[in-house]
Specification:
The chain is mainly alpha-helical. The chain is 44% helix and 3% strand. It is built from eleven helices and three strands, in the order βααββααααααααα.
Amino acid sequence: MRISLRGFLLASSAKKPDFEVLRLIFRNVLLLLKEKHRSGFVHMALHPKNIIISRNYSIELIQRECDRSCYFAPETLLKLEANKGVGSFGPENDIWAIGSIMFESLLGYPPLTGGSFNQLLNAIFTRYGNPTRFDMRYLSDSRFNKLQLCRTDNPPSSWFILGRGKFTNSNPQLQEQELNMIPKQLRQPFRDIIRDAIIYDIEARKTAQELLEMPFFSDVIESDIRQDIECRYYLKCNYEEDIESTHR
């Protein structure tokens, strides 16, 4: 039996999974991505529906057709906007996508919404914070000036987690409140790995191997008997993987 990550998250809304299980799942995803990137393969279609979980939380990445644009990196959206289909996707896009999926899975935020490239870019800036001019140095001044950057006087809590917002007197504890569901000793490692995956500067974005070497994954334990039993529970949930849900 198998279940998509999306189905797993739907099932776990009724039975909250062990946080260690999510670390194990994403460690296994990155191990697989590392090998694919080393072989010159870019997935291009990472989405919770396309991450397949089986016994002992082993992972398979598939290419099911689904609307994956909400997980595209901003540079990918900008290249597609300029009708540059060839070369729009690189390993860096996969890393951005995994960072976004981790953010969604661990914090419970729904992914971005929006239809056009401009709407998606605006949704990215709203969710993850505004880029700097240096971040987007590959853009012309005229194109950068057309980006719909967000107001910084009252940024959402997700900006603080990614280190792109400034605390105000009205919300000094907002960042910690957002991370309350994560074990305290893992909050900083979680911030660090997300910040290094969802980063606008392409050259500074970590590789799969570099993310695996970060403290967030340093002590992940392989699936034990208890976790295997829990995994069987999720695999038996038989959620329709294409079911419409607010967790899309």
